[in-house]
Design brief:
seven-stranded mixed beta sheet, binds S-adenosylmethionine, alpha/beta, 236 residues
Length: 236
């Protein structure tokens, strides 16, 4: 079963996201501002793997006239989103597997921006360039794809150091149900198990840069990075 159909796993992510992801509200704000600041007044925007809708909500806060297509593989996540945006004509929601690329029903060249937050490291690496090519096709000329995601370091030694450093950062932040009272080694083992259970397959920011250029993007920039989290933006 897809782990994101498990109500407990979704609840855990919902409870922990703002605690375990550094500056998550800033990440959502940067992505939504990038997606809207240069867009027309009533832009068409896609939120890939939108989950329970935090990025879509941030986009609509920055640009109340935006229309958002929110897609996600998980029916459980979609249930939360449907109840959150019930009756809001600006948000269209659809269950969709990004491993298959983007929905065929979306017209080429129809999006003012496409954004995603903490999702694409779940996509099978062999499917990523195809997905980026689809994203490129669905964007208008000169429009932007923004990906805030989890990344690994290129060097295994630096990656191990960064993971340990993240555990040290996390220790005082976790609440009792999620790790308070655990030793460093216990918390590390629990986070490693969580990563495995969730099926995380992060690549490096350098790989993403290469893949986006292979997919046709003209410019790729790294906008923000903290620990293993980063935001990259690419222009068609
Ligand atoms: C960590 S959550 C992030 C949710 C949301 N973007 C946020 O920032 O709060 C990861 C999301 O990716 C979705 N996801 C994972 N694999 C997917 C796939 N193959 N296609 C579409 N969505 C997927 C999950 O269902 C989940 O909602």
């Amino acid at each position: 079963m897809n782990i994101w159909e498990d109500r407990k796993a979704v609840e855990q992510y919902k409870r922990e996201a703002d605690v375990a992801i550094p500056d998550r509200r800033e990440i959502l704000s940067i992505i939504s501002r990038l997606a809207t600041d240069d867009a027309p007044e009533s832009p068409m925007i896609a939120d890939l793997g939108g989950g329970f809708g935090d990025l879509t909500a941030a986009i609509l806060e920055h640009r109340p006239m935006a229309n958002v297509e929110l897609i996600d593989l998980s029916k459980e996540m979609m249930r939360l989103s449907r109840s959150r945006f019930k009756g809001d004509p600006r948000v269209r929601m659809e269950v969709h597997d990004l491993n298959l690329g983007l929905p065929d029903a979306w017209d080429d060249g129809s999006f003012d921006s496409i954004a995603s937050c903490q999702v694409l490291h779940y996509i099978e690496p062999e499917n990523r360039v195809r997905l980026y090519k689809d994203i490129w096709s669905k964007l208008k000329d000169g429009a932007m794809f923004i990906n805030g995601d989890l990344f690994k370091c290129d060097s295994p030694a630096i990656d191990r150091w960064e993971f340990d450093d993240r555990i040290r950062w996390l220790m005082p932040r976790m609440r009792s149900d999620a790790g308070e009272g655990m030793t460093f080694e216990e918390l590390k083992a629990s986070r490693l198990e969580f990563r495995k259970r969730m099926g995380e397959k992060p690549g490096t920011v350098w790989q993403l840069n290469e893949d986006l250029r292979r997919a046709g993007f003209r410019h790729v920039d790294l906008l923000w990075k903290k620990q293993c989290f980063a935001i990259l933006a690419a222009i068609k």
